[in-house]
Design a protein that fits this description.
Order of helices and strands: HHEEEHEHEHEEEEHHHH
Distance between the termini: 28 Å
Structural class: alpha+beta
Strand content: 15-25%
Number of helices: 9
Amino acid sequence: MHGLPSEATLCRVFQSIDDEKMADRMSAFAEVFRKEISASATDIICIVGKAMRGTLYDNGRNPNIVSAYSLRSSFTLATDVCKEKSNEIKSVPRLLDKLDVSGCVVTADAMSCQKGIIDKIRGKGSDFVIELKANQRSLRYGLEDSIKATTPTDIYKEGPYLEHGRIESRVCRIFRGEELIADREKWNGNLTVIEILTSTEKKSDGRSTSEQRLYISSLDSSAERLSQITKQHWAIESMHWDLDRNLRQDSIKRKAERAARNLDTIQRMVLALIAVWKNRRKKISDKQKGTAQIIRELAVSFTNVLHFLAQK
């Protein structure tokens, strides 16, 4: 009746909402549609943190929202916030406690390469593929030396192919961890070691770069499948790009962590609604249902979001 609320009003509203309860309502809403979309399929759950650039703590750090993203459903399932003096190592276990990941594959970056996190993933009946970097110094550098003299059990090659102005080639090599990892008992069982070798040439100037990435996994699978899983993990970064580029998250200023997280939750629910709508459109032929009816269904879904948020 009187137009849109001002930015100051929105800030006050976001600050007054319990951010944990808001995030819980998002998770409940997402779980309903996740079952609809991927009830009978093995899902890949990508876990990564994202800094809220528009908000600062007193120590100059940004709040970090750690999220679990369903690859098959294409939306966020749950989030947890790293407190001012905390980090992802403490946040990821809390996030896993909110999820049913049994039968899924959990992927994560090197920050999650911790014994406690791996034990929790296994305890919840899930497999994992986690990147290995220098935060696990002895394991990383030990594997780098060991695989030089070891024959891989499987190899998968991709490329060369042209993408984003670059010519890329990719090789995935698989090693059995029981032959390479000295402290297997620490990591609670045998592991698969994944080596990804990439070479990139810029088409514009011909400059070439190469990179080696290592991962550890509980999966005993082919090099082709494990290579695909490592690539699919970065779908969550595409979702983060949507938050920043299309919903302009980083340019929106919020003074308080609670307001920033509530903004993040609402924006993720918007992306979830779009993903649900796209999925339903795939299942409906144009002869059966027109655009107007699809839009009406989307409006009903949005109404359901409001109902979920209104519940205590």
